[in-house]
Amino acid sequence: MHFAAPRSSRQVGARHSLAFAGLVIAATSLPLAAQLSPNGGEFQVNTYTTGDQESAAAASDAQGNFVITWTSFGSPGADTSVSSVQARRYRRTGSPLGAQFQVNTYTMGSQNFSAVASDPQGNFVIVWQSSSWSGPDVGSYSILGQRFDSSGNAVGVEFQVNTYTTDDQRFPKVASDAAGNFVVAWQSLGSGGTDTSSFSIHARRFDANGAPISNELQVNTYTTSEQSAPGVASDALGNFVVTWESYGSAGADQSNWGVLAQRYDANAVALGGEFQVNTYTTGIQRTPAVGSDAQGNFVVAWESGDLSGYGIKAQRFDANGLPLDVQFQVNTYTTNLQRFPVVASDGGSFVVAWESTGSSGTDSSSKSVQAQRYEAGGAPLGGEFQVNSYTTSAQFMPAVASDSHGDFVIAWESLGSTGSDSDSLSIQAQRLDGLFRDDFESAGTLRWSASVP
Q1: Residue percentage of the chain with pLDDT more than 90
Q2: What is the pLDDT of residues 30-52, one digit of tens each?
Q3: Is residue 204 within 8 Å of residue 172, measured between CB atoms?
Q4: 422, 396, 320: which is closest to 7 by C-alpha?
Q5: Where are the alpha helices (DSSP H) in 61-136?
Q6: pTM reported for the whole predicted model
Q7: How far is CA 351 from the centre of its chain?
């Protein structure tokens, strides 16, 4: 995410995009919800271990097969110039589906800050920012993408997402619907629209074959100062919501940074106007993430800061963009800083993960990855829990993806590892069983059915 007067660029790109399965889920004989539990141990994703591996993103298909992408400084592939985009696929059981692979084919300059989205069948698209590109946008950073089929084979060629090419286009996010159509959002320095003051939020929608459904569009209508750090989520039919942080607002929060959003239909036509997400307006509200269920109900999480530090806040909305209940605090451990949230939703329940300086768990050495699970009505399922089991040094900047069963995978950056990568930053991950699978699926008391609307 960012930024005009900013944090380092490393703090920006790892918030992940929604990994939305896009299914309508029906369940019978549902027992009371249970807390998430680890499925297997924490594992190292990257096999190439020279230099830093950072900025993880994750996506899952309906059955729980998942893909994790990240930025690698160096590559086992053809890109050794600066940084490349790497990825690795996994079965829902956690076993790898092949080796890590290089996503980008253009290798000059930096290719980094990737995001990924999957359709229910496992076809996926990865987007990233490129500092140098041989296509129409050769001026500075541009947004590129590559589609893949469910077997991990590249479909078509690398393509440019943005059509406005002046100055920087950076920090993309991507979301897919049930049919494999996808939408990309990013921040643009300058605009072909009305916002030429600083960074603005742009988006473009594509069909499942990679053909544009819409032109590039400017999302924000409030154009004073900076709008940055986009997030995007889609429902099963392709209706989507874009979130971002704005310095100033036409709404109630004009004191500092606030969180804004705009809804669209499947043709990328705006549904109503942009609206302010946060209701608490004192201090700083930044770095939003958003997740949607199949019907279009969505939840936004962000970091909220004042003189006492940063915490994680969230707000639920229905499919019409109306608030469900009130803004709430996610983290229960409140010492030091809790920052950079990510969120994923399945059939209505959702999980929020974030980085925490300190922990009520076993990791008190530095930064750790924490998470909290919620049922569809917004009630917490158990308490906040620590995701990482390796606790030496820092674990931070998580990404999260969910499948249609409520199972999750969370990936993050780790300084050090119990695996083969101990020289610097590596990508670690942990699988987590969802609401019912462990306790009831084996007993035959839970019956799932899934259909694409």
Answers
A1: 71
A2: 333 445 678 999 999 999 999 99
A3: no
A4: 396
A5: none
A6: 0.88
A7: 12
